[in-house]
Amino acid sequence: MKASANAKVTVLFLSALLVFNANLRPISSGDTIPASLIPFSLLLDGSITLDRFYPWYQAHYPKALYAFHKKDNHVYSTYPVALPLLIAPLYVPVVVGLAVSSMTDEQIISLAGKVEKIVASLIAALCVICLYLLLRKFIPDKTAILLAMIYCFGTSTWTISSQALWQHGAGQLMIICTLLFLEEYLQKLRYKYLVIAGLFVGYAIAIRTTNVLFFVSSLLYFLLRGRDFKATFIYSICPIVIGIAAASYTHALFDDVRGGYASQPFSTNLLEGIAGILASPGRGLFIYSPCLIFAILSGRIFKLGGGDEFRAGLCDG
Fold first, then answer.
1. Which contacts (CB < 8 Å, 24+ apart) does range 177-181 have?
2. Domain residue extents for the chain
3. 139 with 307: CB under 8 angstroms?
4. What is the pLDDT of residue 313?
5. Which class for 301: exposed (0-12), middle (13-18), buried (19 or more C-beta within 10 A)?
6. Angle between helices 212-224 and 167-188 in degrees, nearest 10
7. pLDDT averaged over consecutive 10-residue blocks of the chain (317 residues)?
8. Which of 82, 100, 158, 216 is the most exposed place for a label (fewest CB within 10 A)?
9. Can you give the pTM of this predicted structure?
């Protein structure tokens, strides 16, 4: 039985990875440039600065300079650095095996685009596996596989998260892992699972600040379902500590806890913005993930806990 389950996980993972990379090319975006380069800076220079790469972009790709932030004679990422810090270990074999230290900065930038695609697809494939492991805890295995495949191929997990190092993919992975360990706690009532869940959701917030909405909703679940305050406190420790650390970093770098987002104030009418997010032909959630329409109509995506309903949506970041 265990061997069969492992075989299913392996096939699901490899199938997702194959499809995600079927286009055989990276999808370039200025938004993801820092995330693709910081791991190289960490391993080559021992720093999260982008000093060595900034001159090349200044000379050859000035349209992407919005992704860089200059302060105190150094260049930093406009975006949070939690994602590149998380994936840096994956770059070690690349840096060592390809002797990256002997490459020119232009060669490293070119390599970064290719490695970025592989790492993004690995993260997205892990999302699929973790979702399957979560779903099979409370629904039949065949249904869990079907839903995991719908999530894999019928949502922006494929079209966005697997293609480049946007914050979406890693944020999805952290949220799914949070749900996985929350379910472990609900089944076994051991506080260690709450600590692990809190660590994942805390890192989700560090990766993308808006993931705090998921954390708040999960806290409301505990409070509304009458869970004890000790459990709520234990679950909240890591998110609070990580959140304070992330906010301190952004404030020190940008003089504003909103970080680089402070330069992009929210000015759109709320209803118009929601309509755009859901139905815009260019980036609408229901355009790229139409299956979510049926999820909403059904009133729930899945159940969590011993018979208790937990209405949840899996965010794309």
1. 177/130, 178/204, 178/214, 178/218, 179/134, 179/304, 179/312, 180/130, 180/133, 180/134
2. 2-298
3. no
4. 39
5. middle
6. 20
7. 79 96 90 97 97 97 96 96 97 97 97 97 98 94 93 92 95 97 93 97 96 93 78 94 96 86 68 82 81 69 41 38
8. 216
9. 0.89
Closest CA to 91 of 79, 82, 100: 100
Number of Cβ within 10 Å of residue 309's Cβ equals 11
Query: Measuring CA to CA, which residue among 72, 28, 25 is closest to residue 47?
Result: 72
> b/e string for 86-115 if b means 16 or more Cβ within 10 A?
bbbeebeebbeeeebeebeeeebbebbbeb
How far apart CA 210 and CA 166 sit, in angstroms, is 14
User: Which residue, 262, 266, 267, is CA-closest to 69?
Assistant: 262
Return the closest-CA partner of residue 192 out of 181, 200, 202, 179. Answer: 181
Q: pLDDT value at position 290?
A: 83
Q: Would you list the DSSP string of 85-103?
A: HHHGGGGHHHHHHTTGGGS
